[in-house]
Amino acid sequence: MKNIREHIKNQSFASCYLLYGSESYLKNLYRDKLVDALCGGRDSMNFARYEGGALDLQELAELAKTPPFLEERRVLLLENTGLFQGANEFAGMLAERAETTYLIFVEAAADKRNALYKFVKEQGYVAELNGLEESDLKLFVASSLKKDGLRISEQTIQYFLDVCGSDMLRLRGELAKLSAYCMGRDQVTKDDIDAICTAVIEGRVFRMMDAMMEQKQDRALRLYADLLALHEKPMQILYLLNKSFLQFSQVTALSEYGMSGADIAKQLSMAPFAVTKYQRLRRGFPKSRVKEALAYGTELERKIKTGDMDESIAVEMFLMRYSSQQAAE
Asked: Rounded CA gap, 125 and 74, in Å?
C-alpha cells in the first residue's frame, strides 16, 4: 500500500497492478486512487472497465496495443476475471502492449504459480490486501470518529473491533451508525456500541472462545444464548468454534516457529487483525488442550450430522467442557 501511495505521489507508475485479497475496502480504495491518478477518473475516453470471466482476451490485447486518444495514458481495469487462478495465454498476449497502456487487475484471489501473476510481478506491482494490522485498524477507527468530533478510548476501540470484526467496508457502516447515535456528545462508550452496532457472528464466537480460555463458563453460555436469540444455527456456531480453534492452533505453532504476525497472515490467508487476536490468547490453553478441543468439536459435528446428537445440546456440551475450571486443571 505504501508503494502505491508513493507511485501516485511521485507520478511514477508501474505499467500494471494486481490488487488481490479479502479486504474489499482497501482493494476498492487503491483501485480508485490509481484510476484517478492515471487517467483522471472513469469519465476519461481512454478508460475501460471489464468484469467477470467471459472476456474476449484477443480484443483486450488489441486494445492494449492502441495508443491513447489525446491523452497521456490508456487505462484498462479488469475485475474478478479469474485470470489469476487458471491457465490462460493473456500474459503472452500482453507482451506487445503499448507503453502508454496501464492495466489494473482486481481479484479476490491469485495463484502465485499463475503465468499472469508472474508477468505482473515482473512487469508491475502486486499488492495482497487482506486487511490492516491491529494498530492501523485502531487508527482507522479513531480517525474516522474524530472527523465527527468524537473521542474513543483504546480499550473501547478494541471492544468495537471484537464486536464488529475487521472488514473495513462493514466497519465504515458501523462507524457511521455510531457517529449518528452519539451526535451531540464527545465520547463513544461500550454502551453505545452495544446499543447501536450489529455484532458479526465471528466476533461473538471469538468472545465465546475468549471466555472459554479464561474459564468463564457463565459468560460463554450467555454469549451462546445471545446467538440463539439472534436465530443463529447451533451447527454454524460449532463450525465457527472449530474453525477458530484450528486457526488458533496454526497461529500458535507458527508464532513459536518465530514467524512474524504479517507473515502468518499471508501464510494462512487471514486478516492481520485476526492473527493478533489469536496471539493474545496464546497463554489461555495449553497445546494439548487445544488439540483435544479440536478432536472433540469434530466428533460433535459428526454426531450431529449422523443424527446421534441434538445440535443445540452439542454446542452446550462443548462450551461447558472447555470453559470449566475443572477441565483446565
From this structure: 17
